[in-house]
Design brief:
Radius of gyration: 39 Å
Membrane topology: Single-pass membrane protein
Protein name: Penicillin-binding protein 2
Strand content: 15-25%
GO molecular function: serine-type D-Ala-D-Ala carboxypeptidase activity
Shape: elongated
CATH class of the largest domain: Alpha Beta
CATH topology of the largest domain: Beta-lactamase
Enzyme class: hydrolase
Number of strands: 21
CATH architecture of the largest domain: 3-Layer(aba) Sandwich
Helix content: 25-40%
EC number: 3.4.16.4
Structural class: alpha+beta
Number of domains: 2
CATH superfamily of the largest domain: DD-peptidase/beta-lactamase superfamily
């Protein structure tokens, strides 16, 4: 009988298999426990705050609050654009909302006509979920109270108080400041891929964006940062209570301060009356714009709520174009206000200013008769007289001596044909023609690429292809008045308290002081010589403060065969443009003004000069130094030592011959002989 045998290698093999399986399972178990522990640590430690927010989000909702839009002020801190309270009624779009039924309920509390109802239903249909849609704005306190009392009965209806933009001066600053309006579909499309835009804020019904002027150019600075109100809600998202402690306050937008002066701006719009045109006032020391008026204007407050189609059509189709900013965008021939620039070009080219040219009232050249505005003529004229009398014949002939290229160089040096960085869009640079311009303009017509001699006389009196705007005329006048710096205009004084660069940080003018003084002297004669073209209309009545200026008339049609150019029966759109530029005081220039009266009739003294005078008076009277000069008593005339002044006591007492008799004084012989 054989004995049993044990094979140890089998036992070892089985134990090895067991151990490997045990280690493998243990590893899996350990890895699972480690992953579970890591995930628990991540949830409880790393992402705890996130899940706390998600948990709180089920209990609390944050309602977006648009920030207060930044204020726009004038140079003295007067508010030009601010915000006022606005009671609003809104419907929050949500799943299962019966818009028709809600509108029926609201119609019992506030007046909702068919047009408004249709608009709200259309906007609710297009709005994204949870987005509020405005039903009414500017509710009265009674209407606001009625809705809030019945708020529990009106699901998805909210009546709250927001802010709306307000422009205290209505239309006085409308073209410069612009206005705000609701965000349009086009605005949303443009901002869709812009990472800097707050998309949720853009969809808020109380949010407005800038549409023109300063409001548009500095829109992001004026917006500020949105806030939120915290409210506890139930499972259906309805507000249970408010939690003011959790509110996130909005940050208001930056304050924009302009160089404009509210008093001067309002006076400029007032003197324009029903006329169409522009007035620009500029400080000749630093380039600050004190007024930029375009008339007629419009009430920017109407655009905040939104104009009806009929209202907008009436503004757009009115022939005097109230929506057009004539101070920057409107282009006009400058007429005779361009003659000081032509005079500078002539002096620079070496023309003798004392050389006299006879003006018989007309001049034959190039197969046609060129007429002066003075039918009887001015007689022999030097440059000083020609500026004072605005003699066309003198400048016809002088411009031919100088040529178009030299005139264009001087014009650009004085600010014409340029765009100035004043912070807002909308400028048109106009046209300063020369030979190179002629080649570009008639590229497809080689026969007209040549500058014909007959084009120069019109150029010399500010007509032809030359076009400018009122801002450029003010710059030209300011540079003449300053007589040193090529000033640039400044409109934005500060943004958020940060001062903007001055318009005086510029190079010098490329003209000699002698030539500038000569032209300034001619402009002084226009306003202060009794034979000047604007003498009566340029007297400021402010003591010894005098104004220097230049009149201008720009034709809009040919007058060949027209019996009376000044005919009162001429329709408005066929009348001449009326222009005037001026600066004051002449002996210490502070302010320059440019006035354009569109189709104001012949003669810049008839319409432009009186308006310039009234606006200039306001600017001068607001200047403390000028006011002190005006109010300073005039010095008494000096008397010769031997003269006896009327009412003065004698130096020595005079003895009377007897008591009670009246004293007698020794007779005095006046200087220059016996009486």
């Amino acid at each position: 009988m054989s004995e049993p045998s044990i094979f140890f290698f089998e036992v070892n093999e089985r134990q090895g298999v067991f151990h490997r399986r045990a280690f493998l399972l243990g590893g899996f178990t350990g890895a699972g426990l480690l992953a579970l522990g890591g995930r628990l640590a991540q949830l409880q430690l790393v992402e705890a705050q996130r899940y706390q927010k998600l948990s709180a989000g089920n209990q609390f909702n944050y309602r977006l609050v648009p920030p207060p839009r930044g204020l726009i002020l004038d140079r003295n801190g007067v508010s030009l654009a601010s915000n006022r309270p606005n009671f609003r009624l809104m419907i929050n779009k949500d799943k299962g909302l019966d818009a028709e039924a809600v509108m029926d309920d609201l119609a019992k509390l506030v007046p909702i006509d068919g047009t408004r109802r249709a608009r709200v239903l259309k906007e609710l249909d297009r709005a994204p979920r949870k987005a509020p849609v405005v039903v009414m704005e500017d509710l009265s306190w009674e209407e606001f109270s009625r809705v809030n009392i019945r708020a529990p009965e009106l699901p998805n209806v909210t009546a709250d108080m927001g802010e709306v933009r307000v422009y205290p001066f209505g239309g006085a600053f409308a073209h410069v400041i612009g206005y705000v309006a609701k965000v349009s579909d086009r605005d949303l499309e443009a901002a869709k891929d812009d990472a800097t835009q707050d998309q949720e804020l853009l969809h808020h019904p109380g949010f407005r964006i800038g549409k023109q002027g300063v409001e548009k150019a500095f829109d992001k600075d004026l917006r500020g940062r949105a806030g939120a109100t915290k409210a506890e809600v139930d499972a259906q998202g309805r507000v249970v209570r408010l939690d003011p402690a959790g509110d996130i306050p909005p940050a208001p937008g930056k304050e924009i301060r302009l160089t404009l002066d509210a008093d001067i701006q309002n006076r400029a719009l007032e003197v324009m009356g029903d006329e169409s045109g522009a007035i620009v006032v500029m400080d000749v020391r630093n380039g600050d714009l004190l007024a930029m008026v375009s008339a007629p204007s419009f009430d920017a407050n109407r655009f905040v709520k939104g104009l009806s189609g009929a209202e907008y059509k009436a503004l757009a189709e009115y022939e005097r174009k109230p929506l057009l900013d004539k101070s920057m965008t409107g282009l006009f021939p400058p007429g005779s206000t361009f003659k000081p620039t032509v005079a500078l070009a002539a002096l620079t080219a070496g023309v003798d200013p004392e050389l006299r040219i006879n003006c018989p009232g007309s001049w034959y050249y190039g197969g046609r008769v060129w007429r002066c505005w003075e039918k009887g003529g001015h007689g022999p004229q030097n440059m000083h007289d020609a500026i004072k009398n605005s003699c066309d014949v003198y400048f016809y002939q002088t411009s031919l001596k100088v040529g178009p290229d030299a005139i264009a160089v001087a014009a650009r040096a004085m600010g014409f044909g340029q765009l100035f960085d004043i912070g807002i869009p909308g400028q048109k640079k106009g046209n300063v023609p020369d030979r190179e311009w002629k080649k570009r303009a008639f590229k497809k017509n080689p026969a007209n690429q040549i500058w014909f001699p007959g084009e120069t006389p019109s150029y010399g009196i500010g007509q032809g292809a030359l076009t400018v705007n009122a801002l450029q005329l003010a710059v030209m006048t300011s540079r003449l008045a300053n007589s040193k710096k090529a000033l640039t205009p400044r409109l934005i004084k500060s943004v958020g308290g940060v001062e903007q660069p001055s318009g005086a940080a510029v190079p010098d003018l490329p003209f000699s002081q002698e030539h500038l003084n000569y032209v300034r002297g001619g402009m002084a004669a226009v306003a202060n010589d009794v034979r000047g073209t604007a003498y009566r209309q340029s007297q400021l009545g402010l003591g010894d403060v005098q104004m220097a200026g230049k009149t201008g008339t720009a034709q809009v049609r040919s007058y060949d065969g027209v019996a009376n150019r000044k005919g009162a029966g001429t329709i408005w759109r066929l009348k001449d443009h009326n222009l005037f530029v001026a600066f004051a005081p002449y002996d210490d220039p502070r302010y320059a003004v440019a006035v354009i009266v569109e189709h104001g009739g012949m003669g810049g003294a008839t319409a432009g000069a009186p308006r310039a005078r009234e606006v200039m008076r306001v600017a001068l009277l607001k200047d403390p130094e000028i006011r002190a000069r005006i109010e300073r008593p005039a010095p008494l005339p000096e008397a010769a030592p031997e003269d006896v002044m009327e009412g003065a006591a004698p130096e020595d007492p005079i003895e009377t011959p007897q008591s009670g008799a009246a004293p007698t004084a020794a007779p005095t012989t006046p200087q220059g002989g016996p009486q």
